[in-house]
Structures are given as structure tokens and as C-alpha cells.
Amino acid sequence: MRSIMERRKFLKYLQLGSISTAALPFSNANLFADTLNRHNLDSRVEKQELITSDIYLPSNQFELLKSVKNKLKLIQRHVGYGNFNIISFDKAVGVARWGRGIKRFTKDELNFMESLYYYDPSIHGFYGQRTSTNLTDLIKKKDVLKIPRTGHYLFKGKTVETYTHMKQDIGNTIVLTSGVRSIVKQMKLYIDKIDKTNGNLSKASKSLAPPAFSYHTIGDFDIGKKGFGYSNFTSRFALTNEFLRMRKLKYIDMRYTINNKDGVRYEPWHIKTI
Predict the structure, then answer these.
(1) Quick check: 23 and 17 in contact, CB under 8 A?
(2) Which residues contact 207 (CB under 8 A, 6 or more apart)?
């Protein structure tokens, strides 16, 4: 029932034009979807060809973006980096309300975050599968394991087993660079990326899935080479010995290969577990 109510609130918010294309109010984004349906285009590649320009967050939404970004940063600082990786939406809202030096989220800020969670990113070329359907979904601590000296968690079971085997087969030169991400954590990363790309939703979603579409929320994780720094999140990782050894392992696969149909950049570091 709560999920349905949240969806209805979001649809009402869309009618206010909270997010838009570069030239049209977002309410007209439905017309774009209708065009795809009328052309009976089931192929994500064919749909991509209809997108002729990047889609941006409207300038009048940047103040909300900045304020939400700042509050999420303060919440992360308050609860700690590791805990923020698995924090729920309700918990984050509570921390903002009672945490020292953090002001509660306004109604407009809450609506803005809901809009980023519930909107359909195929309007700007992201075709990944939705991995979560409820903004208030929880990640239970009993279901995850914190990996020492990384600040990250992994889901118990197959994910932990896969990571453990990789460490055994490749060696201690590999490191977990990102594990479980709650909806709130993915939202912060996505908002940071939108801000960094000056509101370009098309560009932002090529390197970071929108908050409801991240496989980190249900099992995937990122691996890197110790001491390689930011290069672990670039195509340069594919030139390392660690990656070459990783590709020989038959029990793992990459989520985002070159020219993948999800509309995501090549990510040789992203391990598919689902």
C-alpha cells in the first residue's frame, strides 16, 4: 500500500514539471514514450537512435539538487561512510531531522528524491533493469558482511563466496572498491554525478545507474587493483594483470561490456553476480 501511495505522489509531482528534457517540460516525456510505443520499437538500440539530444535537469531544479546533495553529504558524515552504504531512506530522513547540524528535508526536497527514484530513465537512453520498486526498501544487516579495511559490505552467500574465490585465485593485489549500495547511497552518487555533469542526465546515467536501477543494491560489486586509485574506475583497469587474470575465471562475468544494451559505459571492474 505504501509503495502505491508513493507512486501516486510521484505522478502528481511529475505534473508539476519537476524534471524536464532540454527543451520540453518533463510531463511531455510521456509523449516520447508514446512515440516509442507507436513505432513498436522493442529494441533498446532502435530506441536509442530516436534520442537526438541529451536531456538535462532544468535550471530551476538546481537549487533543490544542491540542497539535497549537501544534506546527503552531512548524513553520510554523521553515520559514517560504511553505515551510509546500507542506510535506508527512512533512516536518512530521520538523521536529517535529528542529526546535529543537519536540517530536515523539505517537502520539495523529498519530492525531488522521489522523482529521481521513480522516473523512467529510458527517456534519456538508460535501459537497465529496475532492481528496486520501493523507495523505502531495506538492506538488513543480517544479510550483509562488512569486508575489513574497505568500508564496504557484500551480501552473504554467493556474492561473498565469489569475492573470496577471486581473492584466492588472483591474489591480494585486488581490492573491493564498491559493494552493497542502498538506495540512498546510489541516490547520493547519482546526484553527485548529475551535478558534476552540469545537469546532463544522459551523460550522468552512462556512468552511474539511477537509484532504482543499481545492481549494487542486490548483489553486484566492483573490484580494483591496490594502489591504482581512480584508474580502477576507468578503462585503464582493463590493461592490468589483475583484470587479465580475472577474465580467465569461469565463475564470474562483467555486467557492462563494451556497447552493452543498457546504455552504460564499459565497466571492466564491475562484477555480475545475479
Answers:
(1) no
(2) 193, 264, 265
How far apart (Å, rounded) are the C-alpha atoms in residues 90 and 146?
22
Boundaries of every domain in the chain: 1-139+182-215, 142-179+220-274
The DSSP code for 219 is T
* Torsional sign, CA 143, 116, 203, 96: negative
DSSP conformation letters of 10-28:
HHHHHTTT-S--SSS-GGG
Cβ atoms of residues 69 and 164 within 8 Å? no
Report d(CA 72, CA 85) in Å as an integer: 12
pLDDT, tens digit (0-9, with 9 covering 90-100), for 131-185: 999 999 999 999 999 999 999 999 999 999 999 999 999 999 999 999 999 999 9
Residues in the chain: 274
- Predicted TM-score (pTM) of the model is 0.84
Helix (H, G, I), strand (E, B) or coil at 268: strand
The DSSP annotation for 202-213 comes to HHHHHHS--TTS
SS3 annotation, 115-140: HHHHCCHHHHCCCCCCCCCCCCCCCC
CA distance 116 to 124: 13
Distances in whole angstroms, Cα of residue 208 to Cα of each of 14, 27, 140, 203: 22, 24, 24, 9
Half-sphere exposure of 252 (CA within 13 A, CB side): 31
